[in-house]
């Protein structure tokens, strides 16, 4: 209760300060229009921003605010890395990539850099990770930090989990498994949704009608709920075959997500099918495969590429959610969603060992970071292709 | 007016039809399972006689179509069957008076809890998102707008459990302001109940706010080039007034639409958040049932989630029709 009272008091003080700020500004500048006509909300915004910055600086020096310092350090490091990456992109590469980098906002270059790093880690996880992903290497529940006095071990910088597997290795392998599986699922969803969508657009008629109605029905069930329902059935089918369940999951999520891709591919395809060059190709006597791959597909790449990024995010989040709930990617494969669930209890020790509490957040943050990065890049691509400047 | 009524009636019928087809899909999917209720109930010691007896008792020996309508008829009247986990052998061979807990008994209190969580979330999220969207439209292309955009993109693309654990870390563990476990029980005071619901509700708010805010902002900015907005500006109206009095009412249709769609999305988000906070809602029941392969419960939860989803989508449709004056007052 006392916290709420404090919040109200702080807010009231800020309101007062905003009035003072505007009045002082007007007085100091000899009643310049900028201050005289300033809406109260803008004055409040300035005061609020100043208070937030002051609060941040104060928080930086509070000994207990480790997480805040980490967050700020990460944020600054990310901004610098993105800036350097953009600078490098402007100097190195072909003319086209140089041009793309020239007008790139910092968020997009951060996104590109992050995606690049994730791709490298997921490909070379086997070389980077010090231990195998399901290898039981040390004592159980070693704390992170590598400090022997605090219950750690220098050989395991992030500690070990409840059955003694190296967490750093599992985090790195998680990139391979979680991202790899999500990527494969998205590709499958695009293959299914894209090909059926284009077919529906080109053939039309009853074929289009039937497919569209099926998709309508599948889309009427919320996707996570539908995925959970189908996973129940898949788990009964798979029995004790854990890898089979992972395979079923890929197919299930791909089918559910392909309905969304189908919608887009069909809509884009229908706009292209009525073009004159399609008519010309049909008159030339070209077959269906030629029409789809040589005429429609090249003209539909821009919207489909943006959709691929967004779809990847949704698939990735769905898989992470399923794994977090315990019905997704199955052990012994290392995977971020499962890691979050297994390590979640450590959050309660935040006051004693911040690094241990950060472990579940690292796995969850790894998921969040990639989706944020992809979203930043897609946002920029959409803005660029639509020519939106606002 | 009859025109609007006709459209709404059409949408309602379409929604009912969708719900019917969805129930067929759910029923068909569940019937793809190997084995049936009788075998699962009896477990290892199933003799053919006992299996046959239970099948006859429950009507599992009847054709699929008949069973479907039996299930649907029951579901409409509020009878969703008996949970595997709660059922026992005796209750089926017995006189039927001592049946195990029905799915309905399990779901009803949890459904209420979930509705409470969704309600609290909506109460926080909708004003917050619309307000933020209006402010972002008012101060477009300023640092505030860009900051809000980055915040929205980041929170929309983070998994629910990440946001949940970050909130737990800062608001429950490091600064013990709110409880991190939402153990709701019967007979709890409203104040305490809200306090326990606040953290999951805040998490869900973060999840759904972004989309609503961006949509509000886009819908308002779309209108700012219209002549009547320019007129209002030339009259010397304050920018806030221009947006709230002139732009907002015309932007209401897409905003209402996106609010309803996001409330529908809440239903999906609720599952993960309830598990994180151990909130005794329908989502947690669903996940437990999925893990235990408790088919009647899975089926029932799925139907409820789908029904709510379809209903909210329908609501979005109807409200956006109603908020369009051209449709309400046909010439």
TrEMBL record, chain A:
Compartment list: Cell membrane
ABC transmembrane type-1 domain segment(s): 175-382
Record-level GO BP terms: transmembrane transport
Principal localisation: membrane
Cross-referenced PROSITE patterns: ABC_TM1 (PS50928)
Transmembrane segments annotated in the record for this chain: 6-28, 40-61, 67-89, 110-131, 181-207, 214-237, 243-262, 308-329, 349-378
Annotated CDD domains: TM_PBP2
Pfam families linked to this entry: BPD_transp_1
Matching InterPro entries: BP-dependent_transpt_permease, MetI-like, MetI-like_sf
Presence of the UniProt keyword Membrane in the record: yes
Keyword Transmembrane helix: yes
Keywords on record: Cell membrane, Membrane, Transmembrane, Transmembrane helix, Transport
Gene Ontology annotations for the cellular component aspect, listed alphabetically: plasma membrane
Topology in membrane: Multi-pass membrane protein
Family: Belongs to the binding-protein-dependent transport system permease family.
Name of this chain's protein: ABC transporter permease
Protein's organism: Roseivivax halodurans JCM 10272
Taxonomic placement: Bacteria, Pseudomonadati, Pseudomonadota, Alphaproteobacteria, Rhodobacterales
TrEMBL record, chain B:
Protein name according to UniProt: ABC transporter permease
Keyword Coiled coil on entry: no
Transmembrane domains' residue ranges: 12-33, 115-139, 160-178, 198-229, 250-277, 297-322
UniProt GO cellular component terms: plasma membrane
GO-annotated molecular function: dipeptide transmembrane transporter activity
Membrane topology, as annotated: Multi-pass membrane protein
Pfam families xrefs: BPD_transp_1 (PF00528), BPD_transp_1_N (PF19300)
SUPFAM superfamilies in the cross-refs: MetI-like
Key words, A-Z: Cell membrane, Membrane, Transmembrane, Transmembrane helix, Transport
Annotated localization: Cell membrane
Family of this protein: Belongs to the binding-protein-dependent transport system permease family.
Residue span(s) of domain ABC transmembrane type-1: 111-316
Major localization listed first in the record, in broad terms: membrane
